[in-house]
Structures are given as structure tokens and as C-alpha cells.
From TrEMBL:
The keyword Ribonucleoprotein does not apply. GO terms for biological process: tRNA modification. This is tRNA(Met) cytidine acetate ligase. Keywords: ATP-binding, Cytoplasm, Ligase, Nucleotide-binding, RNA-binding, Transferase, tRNA processing, tRNA-binding. GO terms for cellular component: cytoplasm. It is found in: Cytoplasm. Its main location: cytoplasm.
């Protein structure tokens, strides 16, 4: 498979020399929470020539498996306050999924807008040529065959694929897949090719604190460290590592009871839900193949006395904690596995500013999917839209049980759009 030509954002700008035209950059993010590293990416993307920036944001549940540290509305507001122009919601079946599905949904939404010129993403290596080689490698049918053979040895899918790439394409290409942001970058490039989109890639080299590091580096800290600080020490503990506008939003949200999500608050409810499930239901969960994982999860549920105990019982060299967490939370939310195989059916707007309004006006003429901030309006478009919307609403109803301020059911249907000046 041949990837689209690798343009830098500067090259995307050259296409519009002497033309009065917006250059739209898309960013895929969780902002869990928004911090200085995220602000740097937006600034770098803007400095490179983007006139408008659209962020595709995970909702109330995130890719690592589990609830976000603060509601999607708070994170969307922080993104707009810190430089994004438009924030769209990544539907839950993609937001809490493998890197491949996460990228497929996010890139699909950017493509569906019909006016996105560039996708901007962070990477550890900062080398588009190397990332593109890795993307071509994982697209190879030979790589698939090697990966399947290696899976039989009991290693994780990610490790098996990396070893397959090393055997076929060499160590330098394979090493790209050893870092989380590189891996997502490769998946974005792969999806651009698979979906045949005319979107140019632009990468910002990730610096400062490493992914999931438990130590800060100057004014940068990993999202994992910030979540721990929020959980243990409160809002003010993250002040050195987040932009001032985001901190102001976090303070207001905390005062209103919107954050932080209490990390252990739903653990008993999750275990209770899993204890009520029939054995066959575990084999029908998203991302459970015919390898006995459903039975393993069922047996662990019957023996476990806490959520941590459950995760420890299921985890093996082959089954990562992230995969197990996603399975557990999808079981709790009642996610229909068939939704994971469908493309995003709509584009939901969470927040925007004046430039975001300009972007939406352009998308009105180019978008291939219905666009609205209203979940009720989107739900009415089709049966598939209704299934996605109802899952999103259910997830919001359960998520709010972990906030200081608990809301009644239906909050996602009446959530007001955030419009910034």
C-alpha cells in the first residue's frame, strides 16, 4: 500500500499561496487533562500556517480504558480557551478502543468534515519519513502473516507486530512502534491511506516529560502524573503544568462540582454489573476474539473481590491492562460490539469560537455526515445514529455518578454548546 505523499504543513500552505483561503488543521486528542504540552502542539501547528484548528476529543471515557478525569465539556472548554477553534466528540466505540480503531474513528471524522487540509500529531521521533515507512510496513499483508504467527507465542498484539516489522523491514523502522505517540502517528498515516483522504500529515516532536512518566520536567508533566495529582492533591497541584486559561476553567469546574472524577467511585458498581452478566455475554464483548479471553474474564469476575483484583487476575503477557480495562468498562456500559465495526455516523460539536464558527460554515458545504451539537437531533437521523447517541447518553449518565455533583439521567441530551468569543 502506498501512502499519500508526505507533506509538511508548510507544503500544505504552498498550495494556497496568493489565495484567500483557510488552512484547517485537525488534531486528535484526549486532553485528559489539557496541559502545557498540548498547548505547545496547538501553538506549533498555528505557527506553521494553520488558520483554523479542529480538535477531535474523546468523550467521557478514554482509550486507556476508563473514565476521563473531568467531563468532556470541561476539557472541550479548556481546549478552546488554549487555542483550538472547534472541538468535536469522538464517539465512545472509537474513543475507548485499540490505537487502530481510535485512529480510524478520529481520522474518519476529520475526513467527513470535508475541509481539513492537515492532521497535526505529536510523535517521539518527529520524523515523518520514518513514520511513513512504519505505516507502510504495518499495512503489508506479509506483516499481518508474521504478526499472526507471533501471537501464537503468547505475546501482545503490539509486541508481535513490532517484531514482525523488525523481521521484515529492519530495527530502525520497528523501533518507531515502541513509543505510544509514534504508534498513534503511524495509525493516523495508515488511516489517511486506507480512507483515501487528501489530508497532509504534520508532526510536532514530543518533548519534556515522557508518556505516563511519574516525574515532571520543568513546566511539562505527563497526563498520567496530572491525573494522579488531581486525584490526590486537588486542582492547585497541577497549576505549574497547565496553561492559565485551562487552570481557570478547572477551578470553576471544581467549584461547580464538575471535577475531578473520583477514580475509585464506580469500582463496586462495575464489579456488580459484571457479576450479573451471563457467561456467554463475556464472549460477545468488543475486542474479544475466539481465544478464550471471554471465559477467562468470566472466571476472574466470579473470583474477584475488587476491580484491581479482577484486572490482576485477567492480565497476562498477552493481555495488556489497557485491553482488559477497556473490556471491563465496555461491559459496564453495555457497548454493542457491532458498533465498533461501523464508521462514525455523525459529527457532534462540543465547543467552538469565532474561527470555529467559520470552520462550521465551511463544513456545511463540504461535510458528508450530519453536524450538530444536539444529541437529540443527531439521534433522529437514522437507526445507526440513534444507537451511537443512546450509548453516549448512557455513558454520560453513568459517568456523572463519579463526580462530586451527580446529575439525573439525560444530562447529555440537554448539555449546552460552549460558544467562546
Amino acid at each position: 500500500m502506498v501512502l499519500l505523499k508526505n507533506y509538511h504543513l508548510f507544503h500544505a500552505m504552498e498550495r494556497f499561496d496568493h489565495m484567500e483561503k483557510m488552512v484547517v488543521a485537525g488534531i486528535v486528542a484526549e486532553y485528559n487533562p489539557f496541559h502545557n504540552g498540548h498547548a505547545y502542539q496547538i501553538e506549533a501547528t498555528r505557527a506553521a500556517g494553520a488558520t483554523h484548528i479542529a480538535a477531535v476529543l474523546s468523550g467521557n471515557f478514554v482509550q486507556r480504558g476508563g473514565p476521563a478525569c473531568t467531563p468532556k465539556s470541561v476539557r472541550a472548554n479548556a481546549a478552546i480557551a488554549c487555542g483550538a477553534d472547534l472541538v468535536l466528540e469522538l464517539p465512545l466505540p472509537y474513543a475507548m478502543a485499540t490505537a487502530e480503531r481510535f485512529a480510524a474513528g478520529a481520522v474518519g471524522l476529520l475526513g467527513a468534515l470535508g475541509c481539513v487540509d492537515v492532521i497535526s500529531f505529536g510523535s517521539e521521533c518527529g520524523d515523518l519519513a520514518l513514520l511513513s515507512k512504519a505505516a507502510e510496513a504495518v499495512c503489508s499483508p506479509y506483516c499481518d502473516d508474521y504478526t499472526k504467527n507471533l501471537l501464537e507465542s503468547g505475546v501482545t498484539y503490539a509486541r508481535a507486530r513490532q517484531k514482525a516489522v523488525e523481521q521484515l523491514y529492519g530495527q530502525s523502522v520497528a523501533e518507531v512502534l515502541s513509543s505510544p505517540n509514534n504508534t498513534l502517528a503511524v495509525e493516523y498515516l495508515r488511516q489517511i491511506a486506507l480512507q483515501k483522504l487528501r489530508i497532509a500529515p504534520f508532526t510536532v516532536t514530543r518533548g519534556g516529560a515522557r508518556h505516563d512518566s511519574d516525574k515532571a520536567d520543568g513546566k511539562t508533566a505527563s497526563a498520567a502524573l496530572l491525573r494522579n495529582l488531581l486525584d490526590l492533591e486537588g486542582i492547585e497541584s497541577v497549576a505549574p503544568y497547565v496553561p492559565a486559561p485551562a487552570l481557570q476553567i478547572y477551578r470553576a469546574a471544581a467549584a461547580a462540582g464538575w471535577m475531578p472524577f473520583v477514580s475509585h467511585s464506580l469500582n463496586a458498581a462495575v464489579l456488580a454489573r459484571l457479576r450479573m452478566m451471563e457467561k456467554d455475554a463475556f464472549s460477545r464483548l468488543p475486542d474479544v476474539s475466539g481465544e478464550g479471553l471471554g471465559n477467562r474474564l468470566y472466571d476472574a469476575v466470579r473470583a474477584s473481590v475488587s476491580l484491581d483484583d479482577l484486572l490482576a487476575r485477567v492480565k497476562t503477557k498477552r493481555y495488556t491492562l489497557a485491553r482488559i480495562r477497556r473490556l471491563v468498562w465496555h461491559a459496564f456500559l453495555g457497548t454493542d460490539a457491532s458498533l465498533m465495526r461501523l464508521p462514525p455516523p455523525y459529527i457532534r460539536v462540543l465547543a467552538f469560537n469565532r474561527r470555529g464558527m467559520e470552520l462550521l460554515s465551511a463544513a456545511d458545504k463540504t461535510a458528508s455526515l450530519p453536524i450538530s451539537h444536539s444529541l437529540a437531533k443527531l439521534e433522529a437521523h437514522s437507526d445507526v445514529c440513534a444507537r451511537f447517541a443512546q450509548l453516549e447518553a448512557c455513558a454520560a449518565d453513568l459517568y456523572t455518578l463519579g463526580l462530586p455533583r451527580v446529575l439525573p439521567c439525560g444530562s447529555d441530551y440537554i448539555q449546552k454548546i460552549s460558544v467562546h468569543g
